[in-house]
Queue: 4 jobs
Job 1
Amino acid sequence: MLKAAMETPEALNHSLKPIRIVPKEDNEEGLTSMADHDEPLLSPMARLFHEPDCNLYVIAMIGFKTRIDPDVIKVKLMHTLLQHPRFSSLQVMSKENGEMRWVPTEVDLERHVIVPDTTCLDMETSCDKYVEDYVFSLTKTKFDFSKPLWDLHLLNVKTADADSVAVFRIHHSLGDGSSLMSLLLACTRKTSDPKALPSIPVTKKPKSSASRSGKWWKVFVLVWNTIIDVLMVIATIFFLKDRDTPLRGPPNVGSTGRRVIHRTISLDDVAMIKNATNATVNDVMLGITQAGLSRYLNRRYGEANKNKKGSTKKKNNLPKNLSIRATHFIDIRPSAGIHKLVEMMEKGSKAKWGNRIGYVLLPLTIALRDNPLDYVQKAKATMDRKKASLEALYVHSMADTIPNLFGTKTGSVLCLRVPSRTTIWYSNVVGPEEEIAFFGYPITYIAPSCFGQPNAVMLHVVSYMNKMNMILSVDDTTVPDPHQLLNDLEESFDQIKNAAVSRML
């Protein structure tokens, strides 16, 4: 079997320490139970991701232009991903105090790289449907804690937009989305220059030209907005929650399987809308989200009204003053950096890592608007308001502090009550500007998402080359027609694009 271990003698000694695995009948999660007290502890945020109400996983689909050779991938992983301590360590729980620590171990790649047999695939079954169902089945299973908490599934099937698909599944305790995306990109190179790392666009903050009094006013606004936002978070912890809509899932929705699907739109067209509305790319994508959700909910309410006696067909079926909230996740610290991660994997140097995320609560107005560009302007106003607040930093501080004060279980209840009382989770990541290859295989798309969250709907957007990918992760009992929701998002994008073109003529 193909195996890899930590390279230094000290690390090797750690990896050979006896670790007793608790049988699942004694511990349903199968956590290991003996750890050396010298090993690093899991952070409070990482511990939160092991609680039943937030057993959160990252799942990322990557499409390739060619078929994949599993043996090539395994050899490359030995010299890259397995050099990262988190991907070559067990999470070990102490029976004495319940603490969890990272313990280096020997990695058996045969248990991590899965290659299903697709030769007997039913000809009547769409390959796209096969991939969707395969990912759905992965979201219904948990990891075996006797090995590091990640795996990679290689599907050599030709879909509509790729000749093969790789599916990474990683427990969220290993790192946040930004860290994991950076690590993935550190394993890639530009197809135009096989020795060059990908380049990620960086948004430069405009220099402030405000006067002394103007700067003090900005400080006052920042403090005031932060107080209001913190009070809103506290209110949500204790009593405030979104109203019930067809997008709100049942209380146990975090434990259900997820349909993870995606749709690609033109990043050039998104940039054109941005210029036409004097907004940002994030503003445009949030505007498209509000427009698409409005179309979808209008249809769902209209279908419900058909079953009511005496109802009539009408254009607007939405309840009056309908507003929902999105939990928008934000990386609150600079990225570890692709170059630093490469040095860490090649030379054993250190790089920033972990779960350093916060979130803000975004109000989403659900309405049918005559001018599609109004969705973008509304989104811009919302995002500008949130930028003038330290809400995300407060939330991260709360998530770090509460588990230490009240214990992990109580901390998880308090920290997760806020995002579980909103309607959707929303996140965005900036991807490479040029085509890249993963271990020599050119990538056609990158579609990361999550499952295990206490919400029925998550929308993730990620840019790659000249494309913007919208990825949905939904509970299919709450959203039985996720492809229709993607259609509504795409149609809303087309309407906003056409309105922007008309404005610029």
Note: The chain has a mean pLDDT of 84.
Job 2
Amino acid sequence: MPGLENRFVVQRFLSFVTGLVECLCFAGAVFGWASLVFVLKTEGYFSSLCVNTTGVNGTQVLDCSGQDEQFSLIFTIASFMNNFLTLPNGFLFDRFGTTVTRLFGIFLYTMGAILVAFSSSAQSILLFPALSLLAVGGILFLMTNMQVGNLFGSHRSTIITLYNGAFDSSSALFLVIKLLHESGVSLRASFLFLSACGIIHVLRTFFLLPRTSIPYPLPDHYTYGITCGKSKILSSDQANGNTDNSVEGAPLNKEGPVKKEKSFCECLLSRFFVWHLLWLSVMQLRHYLFIGTLNPMLQRLTEGEPSLVSQYINAFAVTQLCGVLCAPWNGLIMDRNKGKPRAPGETEQEADLWASVLSLFLTALQCVLFSVCASTPYLPLQYLTFILQVLNRSFLYGGNAAFLSVAFPSCHFGKLYGLVMALSAVFSLLQYPCFALVREALGGDPLYVNVALTLLSLLAFIHPLSVYLHCRKHASQRAKNKASV
């Protein structure tokens, strides 16, 4: 029916646009930590840990390394919680669906914003739970929005990577708060506004997202949102014989026999999952250590000049906005074979895996280049480091979600996405020992740690090589079968 189709097109468009805005403005704010730290230092958070020390010329120097360590610890815990709790949140999403998961995420995010709003230099300790709540709530926004890609068929991977890019770009939110703070808007006012935005998130949950989840492939006459159910329109469809696949929760297969999917344990023990976990973990550790130590690094390279530190912090935050522009490139790489004729006997999944090889390889290459630039103690080069960082980060997280969606059954996506993020979070805890090593044993010089992380990043190339060999093996097998016929 034209009326139903037009309503679905409008609803689908609104779901996509509002989801993009939600990811862009809220979801990954915690990764703009460097901008917020600048404000928190101005407000005197953890200032009691700064002590006067004697410099090389006998002059008194204010040593705030203890303050920097607390800020680094807050980010380490928040980034760990952001990833590790994705595992139970993935099970929550697969078991209870979109509405329950989002309401939980909205509650966490709102509480985190309120805690920051009512924190102060005397109550700096509130930042520990606040940033973790913002991180976990934000990743739930992303997790529940990525399914919107299922509404767009052949552009599915592009939408997923676009949302992940928006998640990366949302770290610029703390830059906006920093600029507002410099214009006279208090930290409390900014975070109270963020908490009030929870009302918008709730409305979107009920009107523009499904109660359970959006299936893939998309069934015929699929509807979702608060208006779906046994309406007159649906009854008309049923009268015309379209009784299947008309509302949420319908079977995913439109036609043909039901294919036996891999079990969750089979997916977990597969070579794809193991190498993908390594691929994500080593690169994520590099990014987390870079973000968590950006302020001390700039302090060292600028010799503590506040205006220069602020200039580079602003430049870093502005480049984060480009994440939403960079991520679709990865999606286009993943989707480049959609709609094209496949080789005889080649399945859609095999074609998608072939397309993912280039994406996985480019992501690993970008990380090595980014790490080399970050390891070079030359201040102007950091502008290039910022560009490579945001490009690689948008490819990393968008590619992570897109690969899991094509390599494994969709019924396990929430659990696998949660598990890979949780396990990579455990690996990312190494960032705090690395920071302590730089501060205590290396006298604040991170060169040797940066070189070690660059070498570690080379392990990421194992994953694209493994997928390439798998695809080539299947292609050879098909050629042999064809020749024997």
Note: The first strand starts at residue 51 and ends at 54.
Job 3
Amino acid sequence: MASPSTAPREFALFTQAAPNGSINNEALKTILAEYGSAPAPEGAVDFAAVAPALKKEQTHHPEGDGNCLGFAALDSKVCCDLHQIKNEWFNSKYPMVPGHEIVGIVTEVGDRAGIGCMIDSCQQCEQCKEHLEQHCSGGGSISTYNATYPDGTLTQGGYSTHYVVSKKFALHVPNNLPLDAAAPLLCAGITVYSPLKYFELDKPGLKVGVVGLGGLGHMAVKFLKAFGCEVTVISTSVSKKEEAIKHLGADHFVISKSEEEMKAAANSLHGIVDTVSVKHDLAHYLSLLRPANGKYVVVGIPSEPYELHSSALIFKRAIVGGSLIGGIKETQEMLDFCGEHNITCDIEKVPIDYVNTAMERLAKNDVHYRFVIDIAGSLVYDYSK
């Protein structure tokens, strides 16, 4: 019987055309329209040989010591990878295989699965027991890539055909969400969902601002609207106003470079989520918070430190906080919420051989809003060569 390791191209395509072991004609038509058809190349495996791998009865919860899921990676998202590749956070380890938002099909089972920013933690410390694995104090969580296993081996990420992960760190992707547009939820989505929940900026009727309308910012807007909040997008770019209001449903748009607009919006917001990853003046935006108990949450990581005078906080009794990602339990909660509200990320899907160009465009903010690498499609034989 064929297996994903011996026939990755056929397996990846089969999981799209026949997710339950029998051909879905509409899915097959879509694949043929996108990739074309031609005689099979020498050595190709017939789909019939791949089908039993999906029908083989196994479980996510094996007995004994087995605790791993192996799955074929269909899509992986590009974002923070650029910072790590260029060592802009000064912690890069080489050789490096990036990719920390991975979705795919569990081998020999067929379930839709995802891996986020971490793949392990000590599981014993106070933070891990409270489902805050991202803040593991027993040695730290192990990142999906650019980290080290206890035996010294470097972790390698999702720009791969397959990935093996502990079942404790595998996530279920709701069936109604397209895998490619769901991939960025595993970082961008949870990065903004977690602080909105923790800082209680998820209550209907709250007036919440979002600084920056990029990959993180547009997800923050989507979540806030689903929570029932009144949303104000704050941006330096007037060109993003139509996108914010008409496409994402934001209620207000403020140009942060406009003294008049910033003055008109002063003291109006219960909270702000700052998604910008370049250095900027926090006090300028703190002026938008309501006096007493306003919350300003930072999720972007500039390469230079912020400078903030204490008076900007004291006279408003403002709270400034930060947030990383969420734990596994909260990440699954976020995915389920997205499934209930049909929330996905706006993406541009690219083949693996486009990744260098994607990185160059990403450095110029030339993406709407996230690149997703089509791993499965990149395994398709190129009949033009």
Note: The radius of gyration is 22 Å.
Job 4
Amino acid sequence: MDDLCKSSMKFFSDQHLCYADIIPPYEVRARIQVAVLNFLKILNSPDPAISDLPMINRNSSNSRVSEGLLTDVSWIFLSHSFCTRSLMRSNAAKAFIRVWKVMEMCFDILIQEKRVTQRELFYKLLCDSPDYFSSQSQVNRTIQDVVALLRCSRYSLGIMASSRGLVAGRILLQEPNQEAVDCSACGSSGYAISGDLKLLESLVMKTDARYIIVVEKHAIFQRLAEDHVFNQIPSILLTAKGYPDIATRFLLHRMSRAFPDLPILALVDWNPAGLGILSTYKFGSIGMGLEAYRYACNVKWLGLRGDDLQLIPDQSLAPLKPRDLQIAKSLISLEILQENYREELALMMQSGRRADIEALYFHGYDYLGKYIAKKIVQANYI
């Protein structure tokens, strides 16, 4: 235990660690204990004070880009700039206390060898500390604060991802001590991706697919699964029903490692939000804090793109919404965004319009599979 405490003390003095990794429960508990000891040490010193909590700054100004040298994958990560939570500043005092409350809760969860979702944690904190927690967003931000302080993943803290993700198509998934699931026989509902990353890591996967197709929308995923597009185009279908959660990104990343020769192609709406979703799979997201860099994959943009607008009736195009403009502004500021993606974004802004994937149904409900097949045969993705 002394050696563990010494290594954890060294961890807290190392200002160059700016990522969150998956570590065992005993090490997380040791880091929490050292945080408490550091706090008490300063409080009991000859010149007592309430110490601030130093954590990696999660603002976009602290983001950097890593360009892969031996891989096609690039990703976003956070640099070494620090910020603090302080009890002595009125606007940060509650946030300071929230960090300790969440650390205490995580310590208890790890002792009990349990895992909880962020939603479950919110209700527990709401009942135990109603003066400090009144919304889910406060809990989510505080969890990110704890990740930034201890520099370990949410999963290491005992917090399980709430997954919305689904898989269908030509892949067999087998959980430990369970029968293999044939995802091509799961119907339009697909195979529900577990939020337990340990379970996802242990999945045995087999496939004869030649492509992985990431679909933005649940309804489009259902249409493709119902039409068995994965038999016409030997493929695996995956969706997170919008912006991807950690569990869905984790599984996609595992697939990319297990089947490195399979191109990953994204089918999203032609609007800034669609590009934002694709970029989250491809580069990561600063919104995920120190876990931003994890699970980035070399995703290619299949569609919709500007050259597909000729397939869509003019009356099916809708004006960009204010939210679209906000997302576009955020995307333009990303250093990592490649030039041909910027050109697509500029075309959206110039036209002032957006196109949904469903607009292709103008050609019939079975057209979507033909559209995807033609684009793949022509290698028309970027």
Note: The chain is about 40% helix and 15% strand.
